[in-house]
């Protein structure tokens, strides 16, 4: 399937794709480490959240930040976001602070970002949900990062939910999970996922018309 640009492709993905289909296709292609582990407990803040875009990474670390411009790297990353980007934030050690908040979500959305994935905690969750900015995190924490945590690097490889994420690759996230699509396979994955979604739509139609599971399996080999 051909798209005019990334934004058109991401709109299509968010409307029709889902994590399970992408995971199955990547498995069939031999990419078996692309779904972020469910053990990580990274979940959407609201059930309808769906995000598809290109990764921009953000690496946090415990640090005594002081008071003189402790957020300069986080600000640089957010102000450099482009339409279609998805911020993927991680840390090199476990931290209990909320490393994503409402004002960051507002700034990301204003830049055209399509969501944020946090291997850690967010804060201001109620306000983020009200803004309907797709945010995925391990949970929520009211604890501020000031003098506790800072961004130490961005657009570097990070580990998120046990998987390696790199800037520029496509990420898809919904209620079922989060999928990191390898750059070299993205065109084939998107093409096959579009076909899979079409077939599964036909299966649903057949089932709603009274077909049995055996009928649809024998015909489509999809369950």
Secondary structure: elements and pairs:
Elements: H1 6-16, H2 19-28, E1 43-44, E2 51-62, H3 72-80, E3 85-91, H4 102-110, E4 115-118, E5 121-122, H5 125-131, E6 135-137, E7 139-140, E8 149-154, E9 158-160, E10 163-165, E11 170-174, E12 177-181, H6 186-208, H7 213-220
Parallel strand pairs: 2-3, 3-4, 4-6, 5-7
Antiparallel strand pairs: 1-6, 2-8, 2-11, 9-10, 11-12
Helix pairs in contact: 2-6
CATH architecture term: 3-Layer(bba) Sandwich
Shape: elongated
Specify Rg, calculated over alpha carbons: 19 Å
Total beta strands? 12
> What share of residues is helical?
25-40%
Uncertain ranges: none
Rounded average pLDDT: 91
Span of the ends, CA to CA: 23 Å
Strand content: 15-25%
Q: What is the highest CATH level, the class? A: Alpha Beta
Q: What does the largest sheet look like?
A: 8 strands, mixed
């Amino acid at each position: 399937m051909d798209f005019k640009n990334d934004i058109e492709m991401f709109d299509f993905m968010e409307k029709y794709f889902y994590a399970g289909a992408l995971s199955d296709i990547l498995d069939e292609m031999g990419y078996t480490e692309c779904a972020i582990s469910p053990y990580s407990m990274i979940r959407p803040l609201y059930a309808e959240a769906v995000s598809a875009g290109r990764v921009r990474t953000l690496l946090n670390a415990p640090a005594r930040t002081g008071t003189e411009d402790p957020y300069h790297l986080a600000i640089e990353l957010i102000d450099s976001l482009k339409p279609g980007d998805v911020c993927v934030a991680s840390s090199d050690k476990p931290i209990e602070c909320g490393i994503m908040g409402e004002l960051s979500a507002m700034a990301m959305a204003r830049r055209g970002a399509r969501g944020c994935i946090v291997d850690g905690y967010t804060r201001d969750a109620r306000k983020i949900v009200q803004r309907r900015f797709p945010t995925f995190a391990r949970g929520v924490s009211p604890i501020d990062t000031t003098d506790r945590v800072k961004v130490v690097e961005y657009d570097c490889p990070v580990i998120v939910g046990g998987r390696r994420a790199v800037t520029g690759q496509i990420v898809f996230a919904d209620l079922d999970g989060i999928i990191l699509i390898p750059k070299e396979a993205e065109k084939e994955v998107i093409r096959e996922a579009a076909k899979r979604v079409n077939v599964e739509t036909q299966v649903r139609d057949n089932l709603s018309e009274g077909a049995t599971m055996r009928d649809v399996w024998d015909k489509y080999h999809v369950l």
